[in-house]
Amino acid sequence: MIRCVRLWTGKDGNSDFEEGRIEFGKGGGADHWTPDQPATNVSFRETPSGGDFDWHQDPVPRIVLTLSGTLEFEVKSGRTFTIRPGDVLLAQDNSGTGHKWRLLDEQPWRRAYVVIPDAGAVPFTANNQGANA
Hints:
Blueprint (H helix, E strand, L loop, with lengths): L1 E8 L5 E8 L2 E2 L5 E2 L7 E7 L4 E5 L5 E7 L2 E5 L4 E4 L4 E5 L6 E5 L5 E7 L8 E3 L7
Parallel strand pairs: 1-10
Antiparallel strand pairs: 1-2, 2-13, 3-4, 5-12, 6-11, 7-10, 7-12, 8-9, 8-11
């Protein structure tokens, strides 16, 4: 499994999140994998250490793969979560109040953005099954 945080816009127009994981199925040999996921495009970005980004939404549903850097994300309620290298962010808060983030360590935030046509197809399992968008 891979740690994943799903970020979405709730019915009240505010972003919220839940922590969970990307589950693997049985693979061939020693490998485990998920089914292929359709993707529209992929891009890469780097923010220097010390960077931050004030309130915003993600422009489209996408998967954000953190390659370096440790970040703290915050939603309007004041709740926060941390993303570290190897974590997956499933960004679905494409409207409403959005979120903000700031880098916590001395590393740049290097990440890959994978735009996805159907966020529901991502094999995300919430740690707390009581939270839903």
